[in-house]
Amino acid sequence: MWASGALPCRRALQAIETGNLLTEEEQKGARKTLTAAALTYVAATAVSLAQLVRLIALFGGRRRND
After folding, report:
1. The pLDDT of residue 8
2. What is the mean pLDDT of residues 31-49?
3. 26 vs 6 pLDDT, higher one
4. In whole angstroms, what is the distance from residue 54 CA to residue 3 CA?
5. What is the torsional sign of CA 35, 41, 45, 51?
6. How far is CA 47 from the centre of its chain?
7. What CA–CA distance (Å, rounded) separates 16 from 31?
8. Contact of 37 with 9, CB cutoff 8 Å
9. d(CA 19, CA 30)
10. Phi, psi values for residue 10, rounded to 5°
């Protein structure tokens, strides 16, 4: 896991903490939820890169016969 200062969602967490918007227990849940949300972006990027590599492998080596 990340160190508390390295979370991708640290600005949202800081706003929650400084604004006293949630209890300590709720903050733990918010941290987990925001981290999971950030990881969806990481997963989507990985899938997109894998798709790009796949397409390059399929079509990158072919030459047009014009």
Report:
1. 59
2. 94
3. 26
4. 34
5. positive
6. 12
7. 10
8. yes
9. 14
10. -65, -30
Tell me the CA distances in angstroms from 55 to 43, 49, 50, 64, one per residue in order. 18, 10, 9, 16
Domain residues of the chain, as ranges? 9-59
Give the count of alpha carbons within 13 A of 28, CB side only: 2
Q: By the 8 A CB rule, do 28 and 7 touch?
A: no
pTM for this one? 0.64
3-state helix/strand/coil string of the chain: CCCHHHCCCHHHHHHHHHCCCCCHHHHHHHHHHHHHHHHHHHHHHHHHHHHHHHHHHHHCCCCCCC
User: Among residues 16, 43, 11, which one has the least CA distance to residue 29?
Assistant: 16
